[in-house]
Amino acid sequence: MAKQQNFALGQRWLSDTETDLGLGTIVQIESRTVTVLFPATGETRVYAAQTAPLTRIEFLVGDNVKSHEGWELLVEQVQQNDGQLIYIGHRIDNSEAVTLKETFIDHHFQLNQPEQRLLNGQFDDPKWFELREQCLSHQFEHNTSSLLGFVGARVDLIPHQLHIASEVGRRHAPRVLLADEVGLGKTIEAALIIHQQLLTARAQRVLIVVPSSLVHQWLVEMLRRVNLAFSVFDEERCEAMSDDSGNPFEAEQLIICSLDFLTHNSRYYQQALEAQWDLMVVDEAHHLIWSEGQPSQQYQVIEGLANVTKGVLLLTATPDQLGHESHFARLRLLDPARFHDYHSFVSEEKQYSQLADAIGPLLSGAKLSDDNIQAIGQFAAPEMLEDINRSGISAKTKLLHTLLDQHGTGRLLFRNSRAGVSGFPTRKLFEYSLQQPIEYSLLLAEDPNNLQLQLTPERHPDVVNTWVNFDPRVEWFINQLKSLKGEKVLTICANASTALQLSEALRIKAGTRSTVFHEGMGIVERDRAANYFAQSEEGAQVLICSEIGSEGRNFQFAHHLILFDLPLVPDLLEQRIGRLDRIGQKHDVCIHVPYFDMSAQQVLLDWYHQGLGAFEHTCPTGMTVYEETQELLHACIQDPNDIPKSQQLINQTASLHRQLKQKLEHGRDKLLELNSSGKGRIDGLLDEILQAEQSPKLELFMTRLFDAIGLLQEDHGESCYLLRPTETMISPLPGLDEEGMTVTYERTTATLLEHVTFLSWDHPMIHHAMDMLTTDIIGKSSVAFCSNKSKPAGAYWLECLFVLSAKAAHGLQLSRFLPPTPIKICVDANLTLVNSQFIQLEPVLPKMGNQLISALKSQLEKCLDTAQQHAEQQSQIVKTKRIDQMQEMLVTEHDRLQRLQKVNPSIRDEEIEHIANQINSLKNIMSDAKLNLEAVRLIVNNPK
């Protein structure tokens, strides 16, 4: 391309000062002015003919030219007619011979190549070069960081959760069972694993299958915890998509659906089978009932999907001791080749049970007996046990880690118990006996078999609109809130209408600040309600929720829970209490339960409290006991005056509960729990995360980047900022609300204020902001003045920013080893490589910049060639280094898995073969990585 000085009608020129206008056309020439129409934007500019900041666009033979109709021409000949250029050649799409006048060149044309932009006088402020370089450097560091997928989750840094996420998330196509006890964070572990699998390109398509009642909870958790926007698929959505040809499950990458939906719709289940998933997550997997020859329909549905999906995560809090055959069936879903025979599995488990008992002294620091050593000797080399009782801590730790690696289901199964995890609060129950109103007594006597009305009489059609006027729980509720003045109170009841009526009664009768949270509200409305409740000042004292309030949100800043009614199912009760009973809760959890004396409510309260101890302790046996005593429980609820029958229920429940708890404790596999806890193996990762979060690097960089792309970041108190788009914003930023959003860079703030967006290197908005800059043309070339009194005026340097990159299938994880890699080369006027760092650069006016470029054009072309040569040399060094690192990491892992497979059949051939293929493929791909010029910056010395 070349510049011309003479104007003619129909010529095409670019504006040097307003590059976003596109390609302009000369439409009028006066004696001293020239008028240019920019068709892409419909705008017109009038310039002084002698000083017009314009660059003429002229294509040469061999260039591609795009017409305003969209087709492209390969230039074979260039002619001129009345000052206009005419391009002659063949269309690229169909080889048709065509002629294209320059007037009809695509209006949206822009110079994209950095060297072309610089040599044609198209340059920007020097700050954009630095920002582009910083974006590329930060993207490289993030992609190659061992913390990828860990720094951005809105979770507390709890060791056992981080360990499981690290251990499982880094595997190829992981197939594991997450079986932590209630309240230990299986959903968070799954979210961290999914997040890491997606960020590291180990997975792209994820299907989450959950019970119907948990669909929304998972949707919220994925978005709130790890910024993953899943789509909910149900019959209504799939029907709406049925008009489009193709499989609806292939329309989205991240999908949540209920197990019932797949079980009851064979057509959609078949489409889900055909959609090809990288990872499937199944919650509440203990509902998948199986026995030899009689698998349930739900089990068969998940089995079908597990057979065609590479990675599978099963989640359940129900221990295997409550149904060993079903536990085997879940493992069978993960590895049907290994777990093909139940009796063989039981025999193998006995061996590992003996091992778990034998390592007891090793864990406690006591001396190993001969029997212990003999049992351990079946799983460890003789030299590791030689004189083990006199060995130091390092030798015993090494032996322990070896046993963990070889543990039977230790690679497939992760289970932590509350007994092995600290940090939980004490739970206290406060009961409040009230007199049942005569209005309820009369209505319930007419319908004793309706369990729901017995437990929630306010829902009876005859009183549903008037109950707040006579129900003593309302007055009690108001007085209780007064007595807890200054304390945040979470209140949960079964129905949305109950919550709304209770809130309205509170407003009218007491004037207490309250807000509601129910399924009839949209996600944004719920967020506002939760935010109002979370505010320490001027916020609501009480949040009144329907059952959806136990959906998985974190309200641990409160420690008072009022249960306005009680759910019939133990899991729901635990879910309600679990909103406050969480690791990190700093106070005792106070559970307040009002009930009507000698009513169905008292029967249920006593059953939970005296039979199961479910208020003051978590109750892993709850659902099993409920299923065993359900008939008697329902009978007692229907006849609350039968005291002997109620006592029989409590005695039977307490006895069954004790037996099951003993089974659970006896069956605790301490070796498995040690393997699941990550004790002694997670400290390094935890320290790295904390160190990374203490660095102000991200906050400082994003403050500058946001300002550059047109985002205003204002201090908003409590380590928060308010982000708002301005009129100068380059383009819309995905994920940013038009009205702005509150953000924080502090994890502690984010976990306390869930309405605040937690920005980290993992957050998609950070990536979008950097991509917005690196994919834009701005900053591709720039010109600057520096002031260096030790150098002569007019001395100059050319900085060239190259990027070394390659392309590969996602599953090879190229970005883990060789993501786009910036290489900066700086040469001076003598074509000498220099390492100068330039600070306080000043922008150059367009006219002066064009004069400098015109004067230095031939020298700059030589500088570009020299920089390219140096960059090629450095790229070879980079490639060799990154290939060596890749091989060292993957070969070590490959060899380790091969050794382990000989003693632990949980290592699948597929995992080993994948790593071998990865090593060979990546070596070839990385060797062929190409170098591209990303940006150039001309710096001229202008001492003051």
Number of separate helices: 32
How are the strands of the largest sheet arranged? 12-13-11-14-15-10-16
Separation of termini?
Answer: 35 Å
Any idea how many domains? 6
Number of strands: 32
- Amount of helix: 40-55%
CATH architecture of the largest domain: 3-Layer(aba) Sandwich
CATH class of the largest domain: Alpha Beta
Report the uncertain regions: none
Structural class: alpha/beta
What is the CATH topology descriptor of the largest domain? Rossmann fold
CATH superfamily of the largest domain: P-loop containing nucleotide triphosphate hydrolases
| Biggest sheet record | 7 strands, parallel
Radius of gyration: 34 Å
Average of pLDDT: 87
* Proportion in β-strands: 15-25%
Based on Cα principal axes, name the global outline: globular
What can you see in these coordinates?
By secondary structure, the chain is an alpha/beta fold. The chain has six domains: 12-110, SH3 type barrels; 172-240 and 248-335 and 412-417, 3-Layer(aba) Sandwich (Rossmann fold); 342-409, no CATH class; 421-599, Rossmann fold (3-Layer(aba) Sandwich), CATH 3.40.50; 695-760, 2-Layer Sandwich (Dihydrodipicolinate Reductase, domain 2); 781-941, no CATH class. Helix content is 42%, strand content 18%. It has 32 helices and 32 strands. The chain has a seven-stranded parallel beta sheet, sandwiched between helices. The protein has a six-stranded parallel beta sheet with strand order 17-22-21-18-20-19, sandwiched between helices. The protein has a six-stranded mixed beta sheet with strand order 30-29-28-32-27-31, sandwiched between helices. A hairpin with a 5-residue loop joins strand 8 (84-91) and strand 9 (97-101). Helix 2 (127-143) crosses helix 29 and helix 22 packs parallel to helix 24 (643-666). The longest helix has 56 residues, at 846-901. The radius of gyration is 34 Å and the shape is globular. The two termini are 35 Å apart. The model has no long low-confidence stretch (mean pLDDT 87).
